[in-house]
Write a structure and sequence with these properties.
Elements (H helix, E strand, L loop, with lengths): L4 E5 L4 E7 L5 E8 H9 L5 E5 L4 H10 L3 E5 L1 H4 L9 H11 L13 H32 L9 H12 L8 H34 L1 H6 L7 H11 L8 H7 L4 E3 L8 E4 L5 H20 L6 H9 L2 H22 L9
Helix pairs in contact: 5-7, 5-9, 6-7, 7-9, 9-11, 10-13, 11-13, 12-13
Length: 339
């Protein structure tokens, strides 16, 4: 029997495959060890292979594409409705096999190794940023126990740490002083690592044409641009700019029923990291628009005048996301419309 569709449930060591014919007849549903997986697919004629978009999925998708298979990555949230009663690897593989054949199913673009390398850089930098924030919070808490405070912000924490090593030590018990010194040393170490990662991201941005194109959009720098390109590539998997904004969780929740339109807050679905970078960029841009509104699109000044600050920032991010999609899909720089 000719296998036309295969659902592949990934794992660390034991993988599950579910194969069907063009008529929907089940040919196999079996477990495979990691070393057996590629050999198994080498013996199959080229067919449609569905995989949940999860850890290692892009690697296996690239390997199966090299063998001639048509590989589709599916967001796990869209596979779940096809899982029958009970949770098992066999049921998951069957659900993936069913979901991949749906004509309206949405798929994830397979990432290249270069895209994943950039994302690895972003994820590592984000981890170190969180570690620095945790260490600063611990330093502030320990100092507060001895009545010592300094203003909030990374800059003030690093200044305090540098002054400590320059000899400006607060009056503390010896044990506490040793703890504070180690925390300050950790803060300066993490701060240096973040600077190195940021410099490396800037170098990557200079080598990638699409990253340079995105930087023509006001409010988007090398970090945000490289994160977007590494995550969505060309952006052509989205039909419209609104689809991209919805994927980022920037569109309002729709709870309409009975012909009554009812929109709520933004959904906050999708990639939280990119959404956060865009919001930070727009908050910075709002300060620039306040100072020189004539240099920017009048729409932004208008929304800032009508809405509260954070609401206006999210609206600006929503519009900027659509600009990002247009720049990527058209492969041309953004042209600012001024007053």
């Amino acid at each position: 029997m000719q296998v036309t569709t295969v659902g592949l449930d990934l794992a660390k060591n034991i993988f599950q495959v579910h194969g069907i014919t063009n008529d929907g007849e089940v040919v196999f549903n079996r477990a495979l060890r990691r070393a057996q997986l590629l050999k198994f697919f080498e013996c199959l004629d080229p067919c449609l292979v569905g995989i949940e978009a999860c850890g290692t999925s892009h690697h296996w998708a690239r390997e199966l594409v090299r063998l001639g298979h048509d590989v589709k990555l599916i967001p796990p949230i869209y596979v779940k409705p096809y899982v029958k009663r009970g949770k098992s690897d066999a049921a998951d593989a069957e659900a993936i096999c069913e979901a991949v054949t749906r004509p309206t199913m949405r798929f994830v673009e397979i990432k290249t190794p270069d895209q994943q390398a950039i994302l690895a850089l972003h994820r590592t930098r984000n981890l170190v940023v969180r570690q620095r924030t945790q260490t600063i919070n611990m330093l502030r808490a320990q100092l507060a126990e001895f009545g010592i405070v300094f203003p909030q912000g990374v800059g003030h924490a690093t200044k305090f740490a540098k002054r400590l090593f320059e000899g400006e030590c607060p009056e503390l018990p010896d044990t506490a002083g040793g703890v504070i010194a180690k925390l300050c040393e950790q803060i300066l170490f993490l701060h240096g690592k973040i600077a190195n990662y940021t410099h490396e991201m800037t170098q990557v941005a200079r080598r990638e044409d699409r990253v340079a194109l995105l930087q023509t959009i006001p409010g988007i720098g090398p970090i945000t641009a490289s994160a977007i390109v590494a995550t969505i590539g060309t952006g052509k998997q989205f039909s419209t700019g609104r689809d991209f904004a919805a994927w980022l969780g920037l569109t309002p929740l729709n709870r309409s029923s009975g012909g009554k339109e009812k929109l709520g807050r933004i959904s906050k679905m999708g990639d939280r990291y990119i959404r956060r970078l865009l919001v930070i960029g727009m908050m910075s841009r709002m300060r620039q628009i306040t100072k020189t509104p004539e240099r920017y699109d009048p729409w932004f000044a208008d929304i800032m005048a009508r809405k509260p600050g954070k609401v206006a920032a999210v609206a600006m991010v929503n519009k900027t996301a659509r600009m990002v999609w247009a720049v990527l899909t058209r492969n041309e720089p953004y042209r600012i419309r001024t007053i």
